[in-house]
Amino acid sequence: MQTRKLGQFEVSAIGLGCMSLSHAYGAPPPRERAEAVLLGALDAGYTFFDTAAVYGLGHNETLVGEVLGPHRDKFVLASKCGITDATGTQRGIDGRPETLKALCDVSLRRLNTDVIDLYYLHRWDQRVPIEESVGALADLVQAGKIRSIGLSEVSADTLRRAHATHPITALQTEYSPWTRNPEIAVLDACRELGVAFVAFSPVGRGFLAGGVRDAARLEEGDFRRGMPRFQGEAFARNLELLSRFEAIARDAGCTPAQLCLAWLLAKGDDIIPIPGTTNPDHMREDAAAAEVVLSPEIIARVDATVNGETVVGSRYSPQLQASVDTERMPGE
Fold first, then answer.
1. Mean pLDDT for the chain?
2. Percent of the chain with pLDDT strictly greater than 70
3. For residues 177 and 112, what is the distance between their CA atoms, to the nearest angstrom?
4. C or N terminus of the chain, fewer CB within 10 Å?
5. Confidence (pTM)
6. What is the pLDDT of residue 199?
7. Are 51 and 107 in contact (CB under 8 A)?
8. Domain contains 306
């Protein structure tokens, strides 16, 4: 797979988001299938793996550590702190320096590693100045426990404040044809500061890949059930966009998921999508997107079809929206 720069690292142009192997989209897959996804990803050319303490409250970090630990020299490892207590067993936004430092030690043990290459503040705890939370992560860099610092779901202003405290290597937030919030300000801020942009949910939480055609069939515990875009009239109208998006993918000679990923890669060589999946075949399909070259006409059709004005519904519920610092699209 082609590669891209991520601070001091050279990583595969498409990384693997590991969340769905433990968390968020219904029941996790059986261990055997999770291992097939992770080990198959190494074989497919992925060299960038993304996890977090909150995914399964330790399950995901432990899984990644057990399965990929023996191959630690073959990939760049990212994890995240800030949405659990210091033990990593209770959910709740906590950006206090003492919590972040204690949790890092827990994550190192779970991940079966001596150092985490990229450690994100998963959410900014707005009760704690961003400078204090990032200062704690800078102490972890100095101690050799992490190699670089990232931020997740923050605004351009917060990124600048954090970067003035310690250089930020990467900013991660949701970005896909149907989530354009980064285009408001934070993507430009990343480029201004030389910060890599890591795009999570790059296929629209599975929607643009055709993975959700009937929202009523989402499993109990699937957090998409609480997202406005997957509810009622909004979902019905978004399904109309999906059929048009699938037609564009056919004309481009790729799958809808590959169209999303190739579209992101075409938006800038500083963008690294991290799709997640529980299906080994989908993992390989995503990897192949790195070789898809889209014509300007196809990119223009995607932009005109699925965008901040045509997608119906906010990306988060009001409760979840209150937990993030990202710029909002009109109507959110």
1. 96
2. 100
3. 36
4. C
5. 0.96
6. 98
7. no
8. no
**pLDDT beneath 50: ranges in the chain:** none
Secondary element (H or E) of residue 149: strand 149-152
Range of the domain at 58: 3-206+261-293
pLDDT (tens digit, 9 = 90+) per residue, 287-309?
A: 999 999 999 999 999 999 999 99
284 in a structural domain: yes
Q: What's the pLDDT at 53?
A: 97
User: Domains in the chain: how many in total?
Assistant: 1
Selection from 127, 149, 153 nearest residue 137 by Cα: 149
Other CB atoms closer than 10 Å to residue 105's CB: what's the count?
13
- What's the CATH code of the domain at 16? 3.20.20.100
Contacts of 120 (CB under 8 A, 6+ apart): 52, 78, 79, 80, 81, 82, 149, 150, 151, 152, 170, 172
Pair 238, 309: CB distance under 8 Å: no
The token pair at 238 is: 């978004």
pLDDT in tens, 1-15: 999 999 999 999 999
46 classed as catalytic: no
Cβ partners under 8 Å of residue 42, min gap 6: 68, 71, 74, 75
Residue 280 lies in a domain: yes
Name, in order, each residue with C-beta under 8 angstroms of 262's C-beta and a sequence gap of 6 or more. 252, 254, 289, 290, 292, 293, 294
Residue 117: partners with Cβ closer than 8 Å, 6 or more residues away: 9, 76, 77, 78, 146, 147, 148
> Has residue 315 been placed in a domain?
no
